[in-house]
Amino acid sequence: MGHEETPTYYQTINKVAERIETKKISPVELTKVLFDRIKKIDNQLHSYVNLMEESALEAARTAEQEIMSGVYRSSLHGIPVGVKDVMDVKGYPTLSGMKALEGNVADQDAAVVTRLKDAGAIILGKHATTGGCIAGYHPEFKIPKNPWDRRRWAGMSSSGSGVATAAGLCFASLAADSGGSIRWPSASCGVVGIKPTWGLVSVERALRLGLTLGSVGPMTRSVRDTAILLATILDNKLRGSALLSDIGKPINGVRIGFDETYATRNVEQEVADTTKQAVAILESAGAVIVPVNMPLFDELLEMWHIILWSETVQKFSGIEKDRYDQIRLYLRDKIEMARTITLKEYVQANQLRHQYMARLEEALENVDVLACPAMSTLPHKVNDRILHGLNPLPSDFNSVTKMQFLVPFNCSGDPTLTLPCGFSRDSLPMGLQLVGKRYSEPLLFRVGYAYESATEWHRMHPNV
Question: pLDDT band at 1, cuts 50/70/90?
Answer without folding.
Answer: very low
